[in-house]
Write a structure and sequence with these properties.
Layout lengths: L1 H30 L5 H14 L4 H5 L23 H4 L10 H29 L6 H8 L8 H7 L3 H14 L4 H11 L3 H4 L3 H6 L3 H22 L3 H12 L20 H25 L6 H12 L14 H9 L7 H13 L2 H10 L1
Helix pairs in contact: 1-7, 1-17, 5-6, 5-8, 8-9, 9-12, 14-15, 15-16, 16-17
Length: about 350
């Protein structure tokens, strides 16, 4: 009877979370419509590189813009140089803008659908879920983070990037090469994906690390060759520009910005403390002999992912991973209502990072 009640409670929780996300998306679509600003900017950057121009030079009027692509607005941000090439997977610069819009909206549905299917298979294969019913419920949490609505509205690639990270976990045992390629695409947003190299390093998955690193470095070099630019200056230019934005949440020590501490110092503190947390978690997992539990590895890393560097709200979609872990993992099992409360408040509703943002500035 108790097991039956737990299954009903989990069904209720999943339906509630999906309802919150759907309501959030519906509210945006009805009252705001689709902006797709982020998608347009990423598409422009990819398109300019394919035309042999450095997007940063166009952004700062060092070279004339191309009318069919449009001027790049520096106030809307930029991206890392390897994403000028890898980003064509998500925002293909070789397509007309209208076709790219259709493509990314389709990808915003297809990516979580494929991820949920692979997650369900992963949970059953590793016996995280006792049956198909529980595997389906847990895998549906991929769709549940409410910030999917924000990602779709702006055409931001965060949701797709988070799906690539989750998929890399699901396929790791079957194909390290594919896992590495997925993680490389996710590196279009390194503030989300970079820390996931840590569990691979701890478990000595050298092939996956090599594929990821090689793909990223190769894309970076190709972007530099196509635009006849210095690879180092391409990175430093966008980093210097990124540190000037004040619309992001700069991790655990974001509150120090209110005391006049520089963004660079705040980010260095975030990186240092994030690293310590990862090392402590890894030590605990090895001591408890949980180091073969990939869902736990990725869940812990996802929590650090939202702390260690700057973030915007759609980046919190990665917290679907700890949500699924809380839902499934026996080593962190809690009473049913406690699990639901943590899922609702700490993870899916993304209240904890939101409260941190409000309290810490």
């Amino acid at each position: 009877m108790q097991q039956y009640d737990q299954r009903r409670l989990r069904l209720f929780a999943v339906v509630l979370f999906l309802g919150i996300m759907a309501a959030n998306l519906g509210r945006y679509l009805i009252f705001d419509g689709l902006y797709l600003w982020d998608a347009r900017l990423r598409w422009q950057e990819c398109a300019y590189v394919l035309h042999g121009l450095n997007p940063f030079d166009v952004m700062h009027s060092r070279v004339p813009s191309i009318e069919s692509i449009g001027w790049l607005d520096a106030s809307l941000g930029g991206t890392v140089p390897w994403a000028y090439v890898l980003g064509n997977v998500i925002n293909p610069g070789f397509l007309p803008y209208s076709a790219m819009c259709v493509y990314i909206l389709a990808l915003d549905f297809i990516a979580p659908l494929v991820t949920a299917l692979c997650m369900g298979r992963f949970l059953l294969r590793h016996r995280y879920a006792q049956d198909k019913y529980m595997a389906v419920l847990a895998s549906l949490l991929v769709f549940a983070p409410s910030m999917w609505a924000n990602a779709v509205l702006f055409g931001n690639q965060s949701g797709i990037v988070c799906c690539c990270v989750i998929l890399s976990m699901c396929v790791l045992e079957d194909s390290e090469t594919l896992a590495g390629l997925l993680l490389a695409v996710a590196m279009c947003k390194p503030q989300v994906a970079f820390v996931f190299l840590f569990p691979l390093l701890c478990k000595k998955h050298w092939k996956t690390i090599t594929v990821t690193s090689g793909t990223v470095l190769g894309s970076w070099l190709l972007a530099a060759i196509l635009t006849e630019s210095s690879p180092i200056s391409m990175l430093t230019d966008i980093m210097d520009q990124g540190l000037s934005y004040n619309t992001s949440y700069y991790g655990l020590f974001n509150f120090l910005l209110g005391f006049g501490i520089s963004t660079k110092v705040v980010l260095l503190l975030d990186v240092a403390v994030g690293g310590v947390i990862l090392l402590a978690a890894a030590a605990w997992m090895f001591r408890k002999k949980l180091d073969n539990d990939w869902l736990l590895w990725y869940a812990v890393t996802a929590v650090v992912s939202v702390m260690w560097f700057y973030k915007q709200n759609h980046d919190y979609i990665i917290l679907a991973l700890p949500a699924i872990a809380i839902f499934c993992l026996p080593h962190i099992s809690l009473p049913a209502w406690g699990s639901i409360l943590i899922l609702l408040v700490d993870v899916i509703a993304f209240a904890v990072p939101k409260v941190c943002t409000l309290l810490c500035g």
